[in-house]
Design brief:
With 114 residues, the chain is mainly β. It is built from no helices and 9 strands. The chain has a domain of 70 residues: Sandwich (Jelly Rolls). Strands 1-2-9-4-7 form a 5-stranded antiparallel sheet, with no helix packed on it. It has a 4-stranded antiparallel sheet with strand order 3-8-5-6, with no helix packed on it. Strand 5 and strand 6 form a beta hairpin. The two termini are 26 Å apart.
């Protein structure tokens, strides 16, 4: 059995520390199907409006943020979960220090043809 069949992270929140006046990130996993990135935003930090070419999920783990999703703005707190279709313009503004887990769903490689 392969030794790389799972990854275990016993303390997700402790895996990243918000830095003063910064946005920090740590890639936890990346393969052909997905990329999972843990973000730490200091209060007042913003990710300007952008899009992703693939479906994505933001799961807010800690803190409070304002999230722009297309033409709408929602409030995010610990436990907020957001699924975004490819191409949706979005932005994040941290009101307090925020920790957020981002999952990008890449398209799987087509099966080999015999």
């Amino acid at each position: 059995m392969s030794q790389n069949t799972f990854k275990h992270l016993p303390d997700l929140l402790g895996s990243i520390t918000c830095q003063p006046d910064s946005i920090v990130s740590r890639t936890l996993h990346s393969d052909e199907q997905s990329k999972i990135v843990l973000f730490g935003f200091d209060a007042g930090q913003e990710l300007s409006e952008h899009t992703a070419a693939v479906p994505a999920v933001m799961h807010f783990l800690e803190g409070e943020a304002e999230v722009k999703l297309g033409a709408e703005t929602v409030q995010a707190t610990a436990g907020t979960w957001v699924h975004m279709a490819p191409g949706l313009p979005h932005a994040i503004s941290a009101r307090t220090p925020v920790k957020m887990l981002l999952t990008l769903f890449k398209k799987p490689r087509p099966a080999a043809q015999d």
